[in-house]
TrEMBL record:
<dbReference type="InterPro" id="IPR011006">
    <property type="entry name" value="CheY-like_superfamily"/>
</dbReference>
<dbReference type="GO" id="GO:0000155">
    <property type="term" value="F:phosphorelay sensor kinase activity"/>
</dbReference>
<dbReference type="Pfam" id="PF00072">
    <property type="entry name" value="Response_reg"/>
</dbReference>
<feature type="domain" description="Response regulatory">
    <location>
        <begin position="11"/>
        <end position="129"/>
    </location>
</feature>
<keyword id="KW-0902">Two-component regulatory system</keyword>
<keyword id="KW-0597">Phosphoprotein</keyword>
<feature type="modified residue" description="4-aspartylphosphate">
    <location>
        <position position="60"/>
    </location>
</feature>
<dbReference type="InterPro" id="IPR001789">
    <property type="entry name" value="Sig_transdc_resp-reg_receiver"/>
</dbReference>
<protein>
    <submittedName>
        <fullName>Response regulator</fullName>
    </submittedName>
</protein>
Length: 134
């Protein structure tokens, strides 16, 4: 049986340029116990990451300006003590194999196609933390 708040105690940074999507993802994750900071861009994410030190990053891939691939490459270049090893989930409207491979090669641990079911999102985050917390 799943605990009532499977994400309790987790800090999650959500990077999503679409206001409605950012609100939806934040609401879903907070409803299951996570503490969420949501920002609209890669630039904003890089500003808050060192201080926030989230357990998980959930990032859209297709964003204006700097995309999610560029963001995760910059994050992976950081030292671990400033967020360089944060667990990361790529969110994208592209569910094809090429997009998945590119996300993994860029530094994400997993790739999720939008729209994502709320229960699936919570399960993906919880499973990622349970099995891959490095």
């Amino acid at each position: 049986m799943q605990p009532p708040f499977p994400l309790a105690g987790l800090s999650i940074l959500v990077v999503e340029d679409d206001d409605d999507s950012r609100f939806f993802i934040t609401t879903v994750l907070e409803a299951d116990g996570a503490t969420v900071v949501a920002v609209p861009s890669a630039v904003a994410a890089l500003k808050v990451l060192p201080e926030l030190q989230p357990d998980v990053l959930v990032s859209d891939i297709s964003m204006p300006g700097e995309d999610g691939y560029s963001l995760i490459r910059k994050i992976r270049a950081l030292k671990p003590d400033v967020g360089g090893r944060v667990l990361a989930i790529a969110l994208t409207a592209h569910g094809d194999r090429e997009s998945c491979v590119r996300a993994l090669e860029s530094g994400f641990q997993t790739h999720v196609s939008k729209p994502v079911d709320p229960k699936d999102l919570v399960e993906i985050v919880a499973n990622l933390v349970a099995c891959c917390n490095w």
